[in-house]
Structure formats: structure tokens, C-alpha cells
Design a protein that fits this description.
The protein is mainly alpha-helical. The protein is built from 6 helices and no strands. It is 64% helix and 0% strand. It is elongated and about 50 Å long.
């Protein structure tokens, strides 16, 4: 699977997860969108397990590239700072598990990745071949 395909799949799964919560949370919380202490939100959506599984199968470099892209989509880095962003992610999240936890913990992973992919498209960067270790700028 190419990085582009992985990103598209993560976006798809993230959208499924959002749809699940959008449907389920109002059923489980009488004052939704307020969630009262002690209220049970129910089991997580099946898509969340699929996101976890997909991320666990990726090479470490790809995990860090995806994490960097997530933060590009969030607005923390721009395309001119992919290398420094990538290096910062490696420093801030020193293990595969910490990278995966950070990505899964972002309830808006799919939105951030979609935004990043739009920036990548506009910047004419081939995400499938870019290493980010020696990228556009430092």
C-alpha cells in the first residue's frame, strides 16, 4: 500500500468513526453534546480498531511521516518546514507506540490528514516518495 493509499484509508476510517459517534453519542447522553460524569459512551467504533491495526503495520518512517502530516493539517507546520517538523516529531514521540497513541488520540485525525493532503497536492509534493528527512526546507 502506498502512503497515499494509507492516508486515504485512514481518512475513510476516521470518517466512519465520526459517523458512529455522531449517531451513538446522542442516544447515550440525554444532555448531548454535554456528557455528564459517570455516563457511558459505549464501546468504541470498529473503525478505531482498524485504524490502530493499520498504523501498527506501517514502517516506523511512515508513521513519523503520517504524524508530521497530521500536524501539517492541524497548522503546526507548513510545507516549507517538513524536515524540521519530521525531526521534531521523532524527538517528541520516541517510540512507535507513542506515535500511534498520539495519532489515534486525535479525534480529528481524518480531518487533519485530509487538510494536509490538500496542502501536499497544492505544493506538488509526492508523499509516496518524500522522505521528509531531507525535504523541502529545514
Amino acid at each position: 500500500m502506498t502512503r497515499t493509499e494509507v492516508i486515504r484509508e485512514l481518512i475513510r476510517l476516521g470518517e466512519l468513526s465520526h459517523a458512529y459517534w455522531h449517531k451513538e453519542l446522542p442516544k447515550r447522553h440525554p444532555k448531548y453534546p454535554l456528557v455528564q460524569p459517570g455516563e457511558d459512551s459505549g464501546p468504541p467504533p470498529p473503525a478505531d480498531d482498524q485504524i490502530q491495526h493499520l498504523l501498527k503495520t506501517l514502517p516506523e518512517r511512515d508513521l513519523y511521516i503520517l504524524l508530521t502530516l497530521m500536524y501539517v493539517g492541524r497548522g503546526d507546520f507548513d510545507l516549507n518546514h517538513l524536515k524540521s517538523g519530521y525531526l521534531r516529531m521523532k524527538e517528541s514521540f520516541p517510540s512507535r507506540d507513542s506515535v500511534i497513541d498520539q495519532m489515534v488520540g486525535m479525534g480529528v485525525l481524518s480531518e487533519y490528514l485530509a487538510d494536509a493532503m490538500e496542502e501536499i497536492r497544492q505544493g506538488h509534493i509526492d508523499v509516496d516518495t518524500a522522505t521528509f528527512e531531507a525535504s523541502v526546507a529545514t
